[in-house]
Amino acid sequence: MLGQMTEKARELIRIALIDDDSSVRSAVSRLLRSHDYACTTYESAESALADPGLPDNRCLVVDVQLSGMDGFAFRDRLRDGGIPVPCLFITAHAETDSPEWSRAIGTHPCVLKPFDESQLLSAIDKLLYEPTAHPAP
Predict the structure, then answer these.
(1) Could you identify which of 9, 78, 119, 136 might form a hypothetical disulfide with 115, taking C-beta atoms 3.0 to 4.6 angstroms apart as the criterion?
(2) Which of 44, 39, 61 is nearest to 126 (CA)?
């Protein structure tokens, strides 16, 4: 039994969630785990960057308006560091009509808060299984 559990754990897709709101981290990580994803949570971009295991994730779910370094700066730091992990942004404050927003978000997907679980899971599936649709940072 233990061998089977270890083998299954190795097969899980790893997703990192970076959000400074503890209730969002709790709810989203619970949702991801209930759908057989392994989820590591971080309360800031800085704490995620300090984790040497961050590049081992298949995708990152990143809040745009983090305390400290924001989600876009975090994505840029990953890109500049050669860490090619695809990002899905989440935010409650999208300015989708602004040219600055369009430039900052680029081609990365974004889910607006509050979102239902199907919206988030669908966006993650597209990011994981249609990688050409959404380039890494």
Answers:
(1) 119
(2) 61
